Amino acid sequence: MSNKQTLVVIGNGMVGQNFLVSLMASEIKDNYNVVTFCEEELPAYDRVHLSEYFSGKSADDLSLVEEGFFETNNITIHMGDKASSIDRAAKTVTSEKGVEIAYDKLVLATGSTAFIPPIPGNDREGCIAYRTIDDLDEMMATAKTSKVGAVVGGGLLGLEAAKALRDLNLETHVVQFAPRLMEAQLDDGGALLLKQKIEDLGVGVLTSKNTTQIVDGDTCKHKMVFADGTELETDMILYSAGIRPRYEIADACGLDIADRGGVVINDQCLTSDEDIYAIGECASWNNQTFGLVAPGYAMARTVVDHLAGGQDEFTGADMSTKLKLNGVDVASIGDAHGTTAGSLVYTYQNGVDGVYKRIVVSEDNKYLLGAVLVGDASGYPTLHQYYSNEIELPSNPDSLILPARSDESVGLGPDALPASAQVCSCFDVTKGDICTSIEGGCTTIGALKDDTKAATGCGGCAALVKSVLDCELEKAGFEVNTDICEHFAYTRQDLYNLIMVEEIKTFGELLEKHGSGKGCEICKQAIGSILASYWNDYVLDDDHVSLQDTNDTFLANTQKDGTYSVVPRMTGGEVTPDGLIAVGNVAKKYGLYTKITGGQRVDLFGARVDQLPPIWQELIDAGFESGHAYGKSLRTVKSCVGSTWCRFGVDDSVGLAVELENRYKGLRAPHKIKFAVSGCTRECAEAQSKDIGVIAVEGGWNLYVCGNGGMKPRHGDLFATNLDKETLIKYIDRVLTFYVRTADRLQRTSVWMENMEGGLDYLKSVVIDDKLQINDQLEAHMQHVVDTYQCEWTTTMADENKLKRFRHFVNSDKTDENIIFVEERGQIRPANIEERALALAEEA
Amino acid sequence: MSQWVDVCSVDDLIPHSGVCALVEETQVAIFYMPEDKAVFAINNFDPFSLINILSRGLIGDIQGEPMVSSPIYKQRFSLKTGVCMDDETVKVDSYGVRIEGDRVEVNLGAV
Ligand code: SRM
Ligand SMILES: Cc1cc2nc3c(=O)[nH]c(=O)nc-3n(C[C@H](O)[C@H](O)[C@H](O)COP(=O)(O)OP(=O)(O)OC[C@H]3O[C@@H](n4cnc5c(N)ncnc54)[C@H](O)[C@@H]3O)c2cc1C
Ligand code: SF4
Ligand code: FES
Question: ipTM of this complex > 0.95?
Fold first, then answer.
């Protein structure tokens, strides 16, 4: 205990926390008692994804601190307490709340603040910086009473902030001092195109505007007055015009400060005091500060290494970035302006599709120095690899930005990368690290992410990680056998395509043409499901019945004792008192166990197979339909009570849920599908945990896709915002049909998404931009399913022949003596083995 | 023992699938593969889930051996021998079964 040194970290932001995590993962973790000061009310959270707070991510979702992290590692964290001074002679730190701590080593990770331009009136109410969760809370509160919002600053962050205001349904303007947007990264051509794209999002763009003062407005709360005599009325103002490193505390104790701000550090990240380090945005290395998280993480690693006696050096950082805005592709790499002496430039501009690309190469035409991509940033991963790993360019570098006119692919195959190539810059994961992890058994993207952290930061490297994985698996001779089973040498998607293209309607026909043997439970179930998704024929037809799992065969869910459960549909969770009474009467008459399900409906358990038809007859007579609880098909559309009753409701969530459930009921899919609709962002229907989630917002409906509860919960991805109902339904039609066509067997939408190359962006490009030109087909398919819906129980009740199956014995009216119930809490339950043996013995 | 019992008509069987018959107090699962005019009979009791359910499983073949997959926990049983293909220490009884004209007969003594 006493031989431990004390290490104090000031600031628990992204980099401070990353430092703690790296330190705890290192061998020297036990050498220190670690203490950290956290000025904010929350421990470290993901500032990079801050804007997602608006689209429903909670502070919890954004947290970077694993549960119990501080406790397990014995780190003392002073929450909501700002370190106010450092006494370098006494080696102590004092805080605002009066804590005084003696340190052996000190790490400054104080980050930066948003730069507020020194304009008279800049501190009026409703003028907010864009940096912390507190800022965002203030923004949301202010937005409630605002109609118009302005963002000062047209850089990466400013544009993100503008999009956020737009999503809060404000009339939004970006006010840019420079003559073009993103002046640090873009040239005039790129910036002009970007301006159009931003305007297409419904955001006004004012460039070359020098704000001279902010005063009372005439139509809004404020008026911004510009040097050119023009004005802008606005109710709130967001500052996003750059950042200023926070070095006050360092300055006050006499550490060297750089001319342009920031605590001066050397290659080991040491300040002018050899016991004090500075990392992240507060540090200035080589007269540069870094407004990105990856360099901060690199500094954190350097310090841990230095404390452990290592030789690592911080050597500057790659400032390449991609803008994280839906629908606006912008990326910039390295020397985008071509300022390197002798550099050459290639530009590709396509006014029709709105694409602008430019690469800067070295004098000898061999190396990539920089790039700008607007309108299509798909080439970013490849270009970034050429740049960061100094890989020699192909002889005609412009092929990297020209659209592919032939089959020839100019992408950089993952095989060409050296093991040392950095694949994920956020977490400094090299290709070598990924390969080691694959060898260690991580053969899925999910496992790789967990193991290496690659692709869990900005996500920019996800596509590359996936291609490295695929390539390595293939090389390792991993017989990635994707055949569905021994009877069909095809994947589910292949089978789907065969059925679609050759218009195959039965399993027998498919087996004869493309398979061998008699089939098995795997291919039969999968093909039965595909046929049902595509043709939507009655599943108990003679041609189909033998393909169904027992649940589908008996249109009910088998229970552990061989009885079945019955789930009538209650769309949106709605049921009339009469309906409820009818269900109750049926349950009482047949002695069924009754339970409210997690899907907002009533489940009746303990029905013998021969009781299913009479039970259903009574339910149908009372107006109920099959709930398809047994199928790999649409289950429920859960709803909250919504605007009809709820004082917070923004729209009629129940109405929409009922409509959606009626539209998609009966849809068979690779796995079950669940929806939910919430009436406001309080999210009482838990829509973000569903395959399809819809949340009412002021501007319409926000659509989330590919969420999951179950074994591996996954939050849905925000797919599109402020949709009207018609567009919402169109998007859902397309997403679901695309899922049905391309997912693997028994793959939920969540796993489908995780495995999709290109991920969410790709799905958006298919569904929203119609990249594959199949949206008409997808919608037509769904319309066919909707038009051919039938309640399978109603159809079955009308067919004597089908009802023959609903008996335990073909040759006797007896029932299965093995089914025995006992009573518990006033209802039946299956007898356990002892109880069953006892009962059978008594009978005998 | 060893006698053929009439159980049902061929029409009562479900092509490519199974039904359960009560033969002298024994629950017999009978499967029908019409393309080969083949019928198979094994005990209906699933030794893994301990319930009478095998007749409701999906059928097919594995490496040419006809089989049924239990609907509860998916173990596969040979339709010829009743041996569990996922765990050969487990076996259910198999019985004689034949089609005579349009009638189906089971013999609990024959295999
Ligand atoms: C009845 C119910 C539990 C209850 O009493 O509340 C239930 C019961 C079963 N669930 Fe469930 N699940 C029920 C809601 C849920 C929910 C909650 C929800 O839907 O909001 C979930 C988590 C949400 C989700 O699916 O993302 C859920 C996740 C699962 C899973 C895990 C899926 C996954 O992706 O990890 C399974 C296993 C599977 O499908 O492979 C499962 C499978 C099952 C099966 C079918 C297991 C089986 O094969 O016997 C259960 C029998 C159903 C039956 O009626 O006999 N059930 N199950 C719920 C029926 C809802 C309904 O009205 O239809
Ligand atoms: C909206 C937004 C989007 C962004 N997008 C990207 C992106 O796409 N890619 C990218 O690379 N970067 C992005 N960034 C930048 C990235 O968030 C920062 O680079 C990163 O947060 C820097 O980490 P840091 O720890 O140095 O600073 P911070 O995360 O700001 O942490 C510093 C912490 O120290 C605390 N602190 C300061 N002084 C004291 C004191 N005296 N005592 C106690 N605590 C103190 C502060 O309150 C703060 O919590 C974005 C930033 C924002 C705001
Ligand atoms: S989600 Fe909103 S509208 Fe729906 S019940 Fe909850 S608070 Fe009310
Ligand atoms: S580069 Fe940001 S997550 Fe990998």
Answer: no
